[in-house]
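In response to the reviewer comment on reproducibility (Comment 2.3), we provide here a single inverse folding case reported in full, input and output, so that an independent group could reproduce the run without further information from us. The structure tokens appear first.
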């Protein structure tokens, strides 16, 4: 089975989705969700030492263990990594995993099965139907937000790697501002930068933070590149 802390009931990618969904409407509050989710999945694999990233400019990803974890989302990503005929960069894999068909819906349905979200539909412009996922059990997200608030608005330098990764991805995808408000986040910018840059973590997690920052960069740059290519 996949290695998780006993106190950890959700994977990082599930936490990202919960933060991204508007509680009552069940719609997504950020345009970079798939890339943030892909970064979270890769972070899980890095934390579990199933993959590593070369300390070179190319940042090539190496797969060390492709055995199933028991989690459908992560296992699908592991299958893609194992099926690749050649090594690719971290940036490439963020794009590939972020492009998995119906990724956010697969994650949302997983959270529906846990009784946290509810699958529903609504109309856009009274014509198009879209799937939405309103929150029915607010406690899991409340615990995530409380954890983030303690880390961001406190002064404890002893933060666990999972919280540091979550802050890094949430900051880069705009989810911290959505969750706490732009002014509050701006006031804590130095604290956030210290966390995101890995200054509060040990040497072992530095590579992980750098990998997540690359995931955030991909999220911001890819739409611009796509727009200028037409």
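Designed residues, in position order:
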């Amino acid at each position: 089975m996949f290695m998780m802390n006993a106190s950890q009931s959700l994977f990082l990618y599930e936490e990202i989705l919960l933060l991204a969904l508007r509680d009552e409407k069940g719609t997504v509050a950020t345009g970079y969700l798939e890339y943030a989710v892909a970064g979270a999945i890769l972070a899980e694999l890095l934390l579990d030492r199933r993959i590593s990233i070369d300390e070179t400019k190319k940042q090539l990803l190496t797969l060390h263990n492709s055995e199933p974890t028991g989690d459908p989302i992560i296992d699908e990503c592991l299958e893609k990594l194992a099926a690749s005929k050649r090594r690719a960069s971290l940036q490439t894999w963020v794009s590939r995993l972020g492009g998995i068909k119906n990724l956010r819906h697969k994650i949302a349905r997983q959270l529906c099965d846990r009784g946290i979200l509810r699958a529903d539909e609504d109309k856009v412009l009274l014509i198009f139907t879209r799937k939405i996922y309103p929150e029915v059990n607010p406690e899991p997200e409340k615990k995530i937000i409380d954890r983030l608030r303690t880390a961001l608005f406190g002064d404890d330098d002893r933060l666990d790697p999972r919280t540091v990764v979550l802050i890094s991805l949430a900051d880069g995808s705009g989810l911290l501002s959505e969750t706490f408000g732009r002014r509050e986040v701006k006031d804590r910018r130095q604290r956030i930068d210290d966390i995101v840059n890995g200054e509060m973590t040990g040497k072992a997690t530095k590579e992980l933070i750098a990998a997540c920052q690359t995931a955030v960069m991909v999220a911001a740059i890819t739409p611009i590149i796509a727009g200028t290519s037409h």
